[in-house]
Amino acid sequence: MKYANFPGTDITASRLGFGCMRLPVKNEEGNPIDRPEAIRLIRTAIDEGVTYVDTAYGYHGGDSERLVGEALQDGYREKVTLTTKLPLWKVEKTEDMEALLDEQLKKLRVDHVDFYLAHAVNGERFDQVVRLGLLDFMDDMQKKGKIRYPGFSFHDNAEIFRRVIDSYPWKLAQVQMNILDENHQATMKGIEYAAGKGIGIVIMEPLRGGALTRNVPQTVKDLYAAMPVKRSEAEWAFRYLYDRPEVVTILSGMSAYEQVKDNLRIFAEADPGCATEEEKQLFKDVRSAYEARVRVGCTGCEYCQPCPQEIRIPDIFRGYDNAAVFDNFAPFYERYMKERMAAKCAKCGACESACPQHISIRDWLETIDKEAVANCTK
Ligand SMILES: NC(=O)c1ccc[n+]([C@@H]2O[C@H](COP(=O)([O-])OP(=O)(O)OC[C@H]3O[C@@H](n4cnc5c(N)ncnc54)[C@H](OP(=O)(O)O)[C@@H]3O)[C@@H](O)[C@H]2O)c1
After folding, report:
1. What's the CATH code of the domain at 202?
2. For a tag on the chain, would you pick the N or C end, based on fewer CB atoms within 10 A?
3. How far is the CA of 92 from the centre of ligand 1 (A)?
4. Could you read off the pLDDT of 204-232 as tens digits, one per residue?
5. How many CB atoms are located within 10 Å of the residue 276 CB?
């Protein structure tokens, strides 16, 4: 295992972190966590060098924190940096924040956490909780010793990311990044900006929730196969990230023992700056190969909104393109068929005159609707 320091803190953490959002579950109603197996996975990872554990109020319907509390008994708490997150969407008034943190500490069976993150920050949500005193709350909780360092996890665009970074002396920013997302959400440029300000970067969704290892297109397989050193898709995806000196820890949501063992093996080599020029070119080529599979190419700018028929055009196109990139249409069709939004199109064309990408929106909505109907009635 390789380790890195969080700038401006006394915390050194393993470059592989355990993300407790996808713990193994039992095949029963409600998919409860398979507790003995989840504890075995977490403790195996810690025994073999993982020192960073990430959970949140909402994971596994609220049970992830409780499970992590169980797993970190018997001396395991002292071996890890423990992070959990404030569910911003549950904060209606100032006092809610400390009440939520107290509830979380109880579930985790600890008197403090090492990092406490504002969870899933976006521009609108951030402004709301800042008005309710989020930043003073972070200061107060550090003084009271309930949290050691403040941070946030993020899902919005690069401009908002910079605004949040500049708003407070955060010690950690948790962002979605992987081979495909270099120019999405916080963006790699945003990560460099945050790191330049002394903020430690933690990566989430390094395998795009596992999608980068499933239904891998032949064009991508060919690119990997042409490399002199053979690595699995997961290994290449992690390598793209651990190569980056800005990245302290990469979270993996490991749901099986084999994944824990595999990732421990992969992170034995996780040195920043390890990728060769040929490998950096590979990462670019892989991204292009995936991007070539995009069909509609909606950028989600929302200029087409609102639609007079209230069709959420960007949501439909994003879901459809994502299905095309990973050749996995069934979940998209199933979701889409619940409301058949595209079928409501009155073909007024207001969206097309607003679309900066000049997408033939009406034709695409018709195509998607026809495909979904054909595939769901088979
Ligand atoms: N704060 C936020 O807003 C937020 C959002 C998302 C995630 N997170 C945190 O970030 C963590 C990481 O994100 P993530 O869970 O989406 O990570 P991820 O690594 O992108 O996806 C995890 C999935 O990848 C697959 N996988 C893992 N190791 C593998 C291997 N060696 N070979 C093949 N497949 C492998 C597994 O999928 P299968 O089991 O399906 O094969 C696993 O469930 C989460 O667990 C959570 O703690 C936070």
Report:
1. 3.20.20.100
2. C
3. 30
4. 999 988 888 988 889 999 999 999 999 99
5. 12
